[in-house]
Amino acid sequence: MAEQDTSVFRFLGYELKKAKPKKDVEITPSVVPPNDEDGAGFVSTGAGYFGQHLDIDGDRAKDSFAQIFKYRGVAMHPEVDAAIEEICNEAIIYGEDRMPVSLTTTHVEGLSDSIKTKLSDEFDTIVNMLNFAEDGHDIFKRWYIDGRLVHHVLIDAKSPKNGIQEVRFIDSTKIRKVREVKYKMDPESGVKVVDRTEEYYIFQEKVAGQRGGMTVGGGIAATGVKLSNDSINYVSSGLLDESRKKVISHLQKALKPANQLRMMEDSLVIYRLARAPERRIFYIDTGNLPKNRAEEYMKNIQAKYRNKLVYDPTTGQIGDDKKHMSMLEDYWLPRREGGRGTEIDTLSGGENLGQIDDVIYFQKRLYKSLNVPLTRLEQESTFSLGRAAEVTKDEIKFQKFVDKIRRKFSKLFIGLLKKQVLLKGLMTESEWEEHHTNLTVDFLRDNHYTELKDNEIIRERVQTLDMVVQYENQYFTKDWIMKNVMNYTDEEIKELEKAEKAAEAAGEFDDDEDDGPKFTPSRQAPPASKPKPEPKPEPEPQSSTDDKKLKKAEKDAETND
Description:
alpha+beta; 3-stranded antiparallel beta sheet; 17 strands
């Protein structure tokens, strides 16, 4: 890569050793570079006889720099800030005895329990380095507004196995990701195909066009420092513009509605100030004075009686500033000799000053562009925890939107965890690539609407179960009820069967019971017990004298026979 005369490139950071590809695997050459899902700037290099250089003073850097400041500016709008706070408060939840985020390794197969425990411990270490327990809300808000989040990962150069020592935040306007694609000529087809790609970052303390840059030959030059890919942790919003070359923020859709709302509000205030009061019309009798003397006479009277108020749209204040056009200005009209003399008339003010339908329309449009339900941003609406049937569809869509951006933001922790694991040698890169997709970052949840919806679903299933279970083994089987009414999976059914067998072995169930379902409908009355038979009356005991007489009578009867 050719270096610019006005820029200084140095290579800082470190590189983790990559696993060598297997020799028996040969990837088919392609003319298409790798997918660009993070908006990295492409730098193409030819097949050895020509090349291109990275223009860090180009329009692309300026556009990204200006775009981020647009996002930050629109985020200061009151309605936009309220929507952003609503999203951040829903995404990052603080618990009294739990961290906002945690690592779930239950779905990871092929790793020992000790490795899973170490992964969880290293994840907690990274969360503490970021001070996420206190700054999590601000970190997420910064990522949401800028559309990207960059950290410089620092290690101990003498002992890299100690892992990450510090994580430093880098302003998004001062760093760019670059993907350099090198091509080669295919000898068989004669087509230029992709040979290899290289990724790195360019850090610029001063962007071209800013104050403070180095001046060379009367112009402003930006100095760039090259940072290795492994020393930077980069998380983007996952959104790209229509050209698929530049990362955009979730606030991109809100730029136009926010500007329209701001203009409508300013025009509404100006119209109210201009049309609210009644204006006076002064007809000044100038008699037969010459034109110059008549104008001078009118100016003297005008300066004596005029009250001039000015509205400043930038601050929203009203002042008396004669350098601006007056908003509450009377009308002064000369009347020549022969008229009706000096006269003062009034001009009525506006009558529809209370209509703000246009402003409300653009407010709703702004809220929709930010995917926030209108009921959350209306001040007069109340928060109630009722039945889930009262939950609107917008609330369900909003929770899905929050879950989606949570998954995008979780790459911050997964990226840092990868570097920590590889540095400490807990896993090889091939092992990480095999298992990292099953690692899940669990966020604390505080959406009461989702909880109410889940409870309502469970309630409906149990009520249906009460009606269906009485027809079991007649029209429905036990497996059909579990799969279609309770929506149990095959794994859950097997776990229930194991639990039942374990309970029977422990003596919790009677062996005489049938093999029917072990659940009893909550609203079904228990079966009536069989009536106990009445005890038979015992014969009255006989005395010993009676027994002797009875035996003697039996012997006499036998002797006579």
